[in-house]
Design the sequence.
């Protein structure tokens, strides 16, 4: 069971890193963690990895604030920003806690398993 959580999280880390929306910090943390994922005694590195992901995941209110800002309009364009804003507000209305881009979705899956992962890395 302990190895299963490592394998599952490794898959999510790869999904996160493959997402175009993955930040360079999260990608670097993912690369570093993957290099250590199969080693016992990597609990401190895993804690640092989790802290980075907790800092990088986009809360839904942060997504809305970004999308509805001038910077969001630059990123998504005039038509895209309207769609993204409607999507972000719909996510919040439906109870979403975080952005649903590929990177944030993978990070949420990792964070949901963080206690098991830390136990497996002892």
Sequence:
């Amino acid at each position: 069971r302990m190895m299963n959580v490592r394998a599952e999280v490794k898959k999510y880390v790869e999904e996160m890193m493959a997402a175009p929306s993955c930040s360079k910090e999260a990608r670097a943390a993912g690369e570093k963690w993957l290099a250590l994922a199969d080693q016992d005694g990597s609990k401190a590195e895993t804690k640092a990895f989790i802290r980075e992901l907790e800092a990088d995941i986009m809360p839904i209110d942060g997504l809305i604030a970004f999308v509805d800002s001038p910077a969001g309009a630059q990123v998504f364009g005039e038509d895209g920003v309207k769609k993204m804003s409607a999507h972000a507000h719909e996510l919040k209305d439906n109870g979403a806690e975080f952005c649903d881009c590929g990177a944030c979705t993978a990070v949420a899956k990792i964070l949901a398993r963080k206690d098991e992962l830390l136990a497996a890395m002892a």
About this structure: The chain has seven helices and no strands. The mean pLDDT is 94. The first helix runs from residue 2 to 18. Residues 13 and 121 are 16 Å apart (CA to CA).
